[in-house]
Structure formats: structure tokens, C-alpha cells
Amino acid sequence: MSQINTVLKVQIHEAGYEPAETKIRNISFDVQPGSLTGLIGPNGAGKSTTIKTILGLMPYANAEIEFGDGTGTYAYVPEQPVFYETLTLWEHLSLAAAVNELDAESWEADATRLLERFRMTEAKHLLPGGFSKGMQQKMMLMLGFLVRPDVYIVDEPFIGLDPRATMDFLELLQEECRRGAGVLMSTHVLDTAERICEKFVLIHEGRVAAAGHLDEIRLQSGLPQATLFECFSALT
Fold first, then answer.
1. Which CATH number fits the domain that encloses residue 182?
2. What SS3 state is found at 226?
3. Helix boundaries (H) for the chain
4. Is the dihedral of CA 36, 42, 46, 48 positive or negative?
5. Strand, coil or helix: 158
6. What range does the domain containing 195 cover?
7. Do 95 and 186 fall within a single domain?
């Protein structure tokens, strides 16, 4: 991976479903290599709209989004699993490898390790339509980790995961950060976010209410000794 200052640079002037119906305004932040940034905020604050704008999925957006030096790669792990009903778990992994032009020998070894890590080996040749929500979420995580991008964009990853899968996910995220990848993670699980995230972007009513390291969030909330949850409550 090239030495760059940011793996994701976000400057959203405004975005929404049409110019007269904007949902978010003046949202700016960076994600650095090897760091994990938490995107937090109450329901309806604009987190999902922010992620959709980053991914280029909003019908109207006045924004500049830059991945790395302009050639950076990313993987998106959605909150709601998305899959092909007629493809098995292994075929989904194979398709992701083909789309991202991964080396055949390398991706198969990586996919096998991910199956073992998430205890999904026995489901390798099964259709995901028959999986539990947790198993489907594990598949989404495996597809992201298989690609090993410059930046991960992860939306509410803990929904449906059991404690062991959550631990595996967090360990893999830390490994990817050590590799030099950056992570933008939207989550409501504030105690976990406080423990693992280096920086935070708190969105409220479509705008950035606070941003920075936890000490900076505390300063902006006026609560110098507070937890992230307490700062969240004060600012929203």
C-alpha cells in the first residue's frame, strides 16, 4: 500500500434525494491509514445518508469524495445482507475474487481461513437464503475481508453477530488496521466504539455535532471526564 495521509477524504456540502430535499449538510472528515473512525449519531441523524453519499448512491449530492490518492480501493459491508439467491457461500466468495481480480491461489487460501475463522466451513456450499441473519452477516464480513482494500466502510456490523463472531470481526479489523487499511464504521454500540475507535464523527440533525478523538469529543460536549455515551447524550 502506498504511503498516503488519508485513505478516505469526505467533503459533503449537501446531499439528499433532490436539491430541495437535502438530508445532510457540511459534513467533512478524513480516515487515516491504520485507524478506525466511528460514525455515530441517533436514528435519523444522517449516518446512512452520509454512507450512501460516500458510495455515490444518493440521487443528489454536492460532494467531493476521494479514496486515497484517487486510485484507492474500498469494501462496503452493509447493515442488511445482500446476496444472490442462487449462489452458494463459496460462489459468492469466488465472484468477489473475480470482480476484484484476486490471484486464484491466494484468494482461495484466504477464503478458507475466513470460513474457519467465522466457523462457516460446513456452510461453504450452501445457499445463504437459508442462513440465519447472523450467518448472512458473517458472509458479508468475509466478502469484505477477502478483498483487503485500502478502506472498509462498515454499516452497523454488530447486528445479528454472536459474541464470538463479534470478537473475530474486531480482531480481523485490528489486523487490517495494522496492515495499513482504514475503517469507517457506523454503529450504535457506543461502548464498543469507545474501546476500539481512534476517532469519532458524531452526526446530529444532518450535520457534524462533534468530531475528533475522545478527548476532543469531551471538550466539545463540555464533559471532560465523560464516556462516549455521556457525550453522545449531551450533544444530541
1. 3.40.50.300
2. coil
3. 47-54, 89-99, 104-117, 133-147, 163-179, 190-196, 214-221, 228-235
4. positive
5. coil
6. 1-73+149-236
7. no
pTM of the model: 0.92
Q: Residue 169, CB half-sphere, CA atoms under 13 Å: how many?
A: 28
Reported as a single tens digit per residue, the pLDDT across 114-157 is 999 999 999 999 999 999 999 999 999 999 999 999 999 999 99
Split into its structural domains, the chain has a count of 2
Q: How does DSSP assign 46-68, residue by residue? A: SHHHHHHHHTT--SEEEEEEEET
Closest by alpha carbon to 221, among 232, 212, 213? Answer: 232
For residues 219 and 114, give the distance between their C-alpha atoms in angstroms, rounded to a whole number: 40
> How many Å apart are CA 194 and CA 38, to the nearest integer?
9
- Strands of the sheet containing 182-186, edge to edge, are 74-77, 151-155, 182-186, 36-40, 199-204, 207-212
Count the Cβ atoms, other than its own, within 10 Å of residue 171. 11
- Helix (H) and strand (E) counts for the chain? 8, 9
Q: What's the half-sphere exposure (Cβ side, CA atoms, 13 Å) at 160?
A: 18
Give the count of alpha carbons within 13 A of 11, CB side only: 3
What was the pLDDT predicted at 31? 97
Cα 184 to chain centroid distance, Å, stands at: 5
Q: In this structure, are 85 and 133 located in the same domain? A: yes
| Boundary (domain end) residue, out of 103, 126, 147 | 147
Q: In the structure grid, which three cell numbers stand for residue 130, read together?
A: 437459508
